[in-house]
Write a structure and sequence with these properties.
There is one protein chain. By secondary structure, this protein is α/β, with parallel strands linked by helices. 43% of the residues lie in helices and 19% in strands. It contains twelve helices and 13 strands. The strands form three sheets. It has a nine-stranded parallel sheet with strand order 3-2-1-13-10-9-8-5-4, covered by helices on one side. It has a two-stranded antiparallel ribbon with strand order 6-7. The radius of gyration is 19 Å and the shape is globular. The relative contact order is 0.13.
Length: 309
């Protein structure tokens, strides 16, 4: 059984999107019973026009702490290379405290070199970025648990304590869909988020994770895009339109091809079947990427579908 309070909406800023619109979607998610509202953390749009609006992630997270009441919120995910890890932990603890413990911290290695270069950050090869990631986790983990840290590494160092502290640890999510992430997940994460992956791919990754956890239980979640319609004709109509899906995945679009890429696609019954397959693969939570916030009818259909599961 999938419950809507185990689901969340993840907002990627789109052309012309304002902070006010992001806050409106957070209100929508909370009002409709979603458990989570999440923000992508990018310094540049990852698609098409690089000059379009892209409200800064952590600024909007601060606003979400005060404009929402019960929904959990956070970035999905924050690349480690953007911010010093001790400072990132301090920011997380502050938002956790100010929201009565509703903040979740999601971190990743980072992949989008163009935004690093645009803002003057180094973008080393993946081996070095992974080393940085592990060092960052060794700093972040004790700090978000209310413990002091005294660490000197090759890439980062910290000797500090985070105040104020909410009294309970910040939930730590590690994002990534590569087997190379399993060791870090098993050692540090409270939750592993796997993105844009089919049920078969998720099941394979989770089977490897189970062997690494050695009895420790962590939550698992899926992040992905969706295309849902009332009937097959409407599905085909959406597939024929030049939408963000065609920009991302090429044209002509076919439902089966999108499903193979880990995209929910089809009628209500077909999308429900895909969600059940992901659940059976071992996923606990489901985060839905809002690629087109202008298609409110489709988002409402997703919401009503989740409420009926």
């Amino acid at each position: 059984m999938i419950h809507i309070d185990h689901c969340g909406l993840m907002i990627e800023p789109q052309e012309g999107m304002s902070v006010k619109e992001i806050l409106n979607w957070a209100s929508y998610a909370e009002r409709n019973g979603y458990g989570y509202i999440l923000r992508s953390d990018h310094l540049l749009p990852t698609r098409s026009n690089k000059q379009r609006d892209s409200p800064e992630c952590w600024v909007t997270l601060g606003m979400l702490a005060t404009t929402t009441k019960k929904i959990k919120f956070g970035p999905l995910v924050s690349p480690i290379g953007f911010r010093n890890p001790a400072l990132l932990a301090r920011m997380a603890c502050n938002l956790h405290t100010s929201s009565d413990g509703r903040f979740i911290l999601s971190v990743g290695v980072g992949w989008y070199g163009e935004e690093y270069h645009a803002y003057g950050f180094e973008f080393p090869d993946i081996r070095v970025r992974y080393e940085q990631f592990i060092e960052a986790l060794r700093i972040i983990t004790p700090l978000i648990q209310g413990k002091p840290v005294d660490f000197q590494g090759q890439h980062y160092s910290a000797k500090t304590h985070c105040f104020p502290f909410a009294g309970r640890k910040v939930h730590l999510v590690i994002g990534g869909s590569k087997p190379s992430m399993i060791k870090a997940v098993a050692s540090y994460a409270d939750e592993w988020n796997i993105y844009d992956s089919s049920a078969a791919a998720c099941e394979c990754l989770l089977s490897h994770l189970d062997r690494s956890l050695r009895g420790r239980r962590i939550e698992t979640s899926w992040l992905g895009s969706f295309l849902i319609a009332e009937n097959k004709n409407e599905v085909q109509k959406k597939l024929r339109q030049r939408t963000i899906y065609s920009i991302l995945y090429g044209t002509p679009l076919k439902a089966n091809n999108l499903r193979k890429r880990g995209i929910l696609c089809g009628t209500v019954d077909e999308v429900t079947s895909q969600l059940n397959e992901l659940k059976e693969a071992g996923l606990d939570k489901f985060y839905f990427r809002l690629l087109n916030t202008k298609d409110k009818e489709m988002i409402n259909l997703l919401t009503s579908t989740l409420k009926e599961l």
